[in-house]
Predict the structure.
Amino acid sequence: MPHSENDVFIARLQSSQPTLMDNRQKGFDLQFSNPRFVFRTLKMWFFYSKPEHWQSDFELKSIKPNDLVIGLAYAASGNEPANYTVTSLATLSCENNELIVGKPLVPFLAWNRENGSCRHDSHDAVGILDGFIYKDQEYYLQQLQAKYPTCNKLNAAFPSDANKNELSNSTESASTHSASKQDSHPQTSFWEKVKFWFGQWI
């Protein structure tokens, strides 16, 4: 089956390590920070397990740690629903508050709406969001643009290590100053934990 919008995720790459996959084929264990399936509805959360292990059968030659990526991933086995296979990746960047999607690293099984099949004369023109049955990449890019209308919104949702370190340094003195006050209160309330959990998926 071709991919659907439910397979689209955005994250920052942390690392890519060579490994052997279940079929003894060479693969790569991937680590991401803040992975988020950006088109899944609330209803879909109950149908999919949260990824705990990411793996690909291709090397991420042109993508470096801390790069923001958009990709396609799915749980290949119903017996291991938290193990996700990454089919393809592309870079995701933002300039002048406009999202820019790079070319997919590897071709993937994509639906061709013109001939009603998965046959393509060339995969060069197929974008990472272009292989779904009903809509094309332009449509889904507009959805993402509405979700992250500015570069600041995008980077806040998927912070880089540099941004995290800067935020940590800027709040360190304030945290130290208010430590005695915080000691007399719970660190995180139940509803804050619920909001944080939902924030990871919305």
